[in-house]
Structure formats: structure tokens, C-alpha cells
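This section describes the prediction task in plain terms. A model, or a person checking by hand, is given the sequence of a single protein chain and must write out its three-dimensional structure as a string of C-alpha cells. No templates, partner chains or ligands are provided. The sample shown here is typical of the held-out split.
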Amino acid sequence: MKKLFIFLCAGVLIFSLTSPIIAGGIDNKQNLSAEYVRTLNRSATTDSADAVAYNPAGVVKMEDGFFLNLSGQYALKEYSNTIGGVEYQSDTPSIVPSLFGLYKKDRWAGFAAFTIPCGGGKVRFKNGNATTFALGQGFIGGANAQLALGGYPPLYDNILSQSLEAESIYYGLTLGGAYAINDMISVSLGLRYIDAQKEAAGSVAIGASSGQVPDQFAEIDYEETADGLGGIIGINISPAKDLNIGFRYETRTSLDFETDVNRDDLGYFIDGSKARRDLPALLSLGAAYNIVPNLKLEASYVYYFNEDADWNGDEDNVDNGYDIGLALEYGFTPTFKGSIGYLYTDTGIEADYMLPECPELDADTVAAGFAYTVHPGLDLNLGVLKTFYKDETTTTGIKLEKDVTIISFGIQYKFM
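The expected answer:
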């Protein structure tokens, strides 16, 4: 009975959590550009305007001029929960955009970015999932408790139908600048505003096998919103002609979510209530080395400070996480280059505390793609990644699985 109670409580609380589309931190997401999708390692990049997000201090290494970089990602994703041999699935795809702007002149650079640093996906479990199953069990328990008050036996014993649709999007707007102290060292400072929006709608119908009592239907429909500011600090070091090193630190963004309840037949939520769910700080380290003129090796390490975020106590149930990866990029011609990349992700969370709608599973990700200069100043990027997640099973027997493939296209234009 105690395990069932904990399971039911977790099922309700899970509605208020969020998760990234692919490998990354529990909340933080790194797939912000087409260049990233084809390499998975951009922490020391200085060759494209998406460096605004990955190595902001390195943008002063680019040519003078004004750059615009637009990316779109199409994510094919399948999430599943298996309970007692029954699999519940969502296979709704997502489209994730990003836009980077950069103006660089001599030692100075100014930049702006629009990204989705967290969330960015919708799930649609047409036949329910672990969360609605938990709500259904709780609904049955409550209905039978009402029967007991009238002296009747517990007749409700069946979940007739269940469904869940949820979406989480964090819009990020970054403004900042960079300065080259000398030919070796440059620094950057930025400010990012986040507008976080989450919504979920679920329904459960219960009945009795005996048919002695009428079926009952319950629905939950609510939204959560929050906004906050965070800082981004960058350092770029070029100790040798063929070696570049990038550092980036993103501060924690405090987010206090307010709940707007549209409907709650089960009485789980309070309209206007608030709950803290910060976007954790992270530290990114990267190195890029030109092995030979046409072959570049890139390495990255991103560390997520999950334990330092305020998640209303849920941070006590997780560890800090990290990504670590390598990429190779080869220039076949002066205008055409291809790349491959690998990334390993340790999210720092155990199965019992994962989000069933989008479980934060450890993963291996591989990527490939190419960049093509159509003419001077106009560059195209195409990337594909595939993430292989390690399925987990909770102590209550729920198997959590996930499968994601992303195709991304990007275009960059230099105006002057």
C-alpha cells in the first residue's frame, strides 16, 4: 500500500516536470543549431554564428561583418511506458527553430540569439501512460472510498480509457558582446531571458466489471508559466595556431511557475499556486585542433549543476550530469566539408524520478552531416543525429524507453 501511495503521488507530481528532446542535462538542452546536429561538439567553435550559443567569446575569431544564421530541426521521437506488459506510446514529432545574429568588427562583437534551451516537444499518449495510469488508480481508490461511506463494497476495478497530451517550451532570448583582449584571449558576457510555458491535459474513465455502478470520467487541464534572467560568461583561448579552447558558464535561471487550472475533476491542483523549477547552471569546456589543414578534431565536455537548482526539493533526488564527446570534420574542397560526431550523456537521475512522458535516460548519440558554401557569404548546413537511449525500469515495474532521430537544416548569410 505504501508503494502504491508513493507511485500515485509521483504520478501527479510528474505533470509539473519537463525534459529536453535529446541527450543533455535533465532540463538543459544543447541541440540548438544545424551545426550542432551534424557534429554534437561545438564548445570551441569559431567558424559559424551559432558560436553565439556554444562559444560566445570565440565569435571575435570570425571575419568582420554581420551574420544571420537560421536553423530548423525536425525531431522524430517515440517515448513509451510499459506497465504489466502493456505498452503506452507517443510518437508525435517536433519542429525546433533557432536564430543567431552576430556583428563583428575588429576586436569587438555584438550578438543575439533566439533558441529553445529547454523543452521544445509535444507528447500525445492517445491511450494514456504511466501518469494517467497512476491517476486512474487513484480515481478508483477515491470512488471506492465513497462507496464504502455508503456501506457498499469496492465495485470500481477497471480503467476504461485514458489519454494525455502535454507540451513544454522554454523560449530563450540572448543578448551579449565579446572582446578580444589580444590575439590569444577573448572574453564575452551575455544575458538570457527565458519565457517558460508548459501545459498538460489528461483524462481517465473508470468503471466496474459488475456493472452495478455508473462509469465515471475525470479530466485535468492546466498550464504553468514562468520567466527569468540568467547570465552567460565566456572565455576563448588560442594558445597555438591550430588549437582553440572555449569556456562557457551559464548561471542558474530562477523560474517560479504559476499554475492556471482550466479543469481539475480530481482536485490535485490549486489555481494560482506556484512551484519552483530553475533551469540549472552549466559549464562547457571545448577544444578544437587542426590535425592537418583539412582535418579538424573537436572535443567537448558539458557539466550540468542539477543539484544546485531549486526544484522544490526534487533536486535532492538527482546528481549532477554531463555530456562528453568527440567530432571529426574534413574539408573535401574549399567549399564542402563533412563531419561525424559522438556524444555520451549521463543525466544524473534514477528511473524512479524520471518523467514518464519523456524519460531522462542516459544515452549514446551519433551524428553526421555536411556544410556547403554556395558562394562567398552563403553557407548551408545539413545534419542528422540518432540517439540510442538506455532503457530503465522503476522499482514499481514501469519500463521507460525512448527513441529520437533529428534532421536539421541551417542557412547562414554574411551581409557585409
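For orientation: Helices lie at 2-13, 34-39, 51-54, 130-149.
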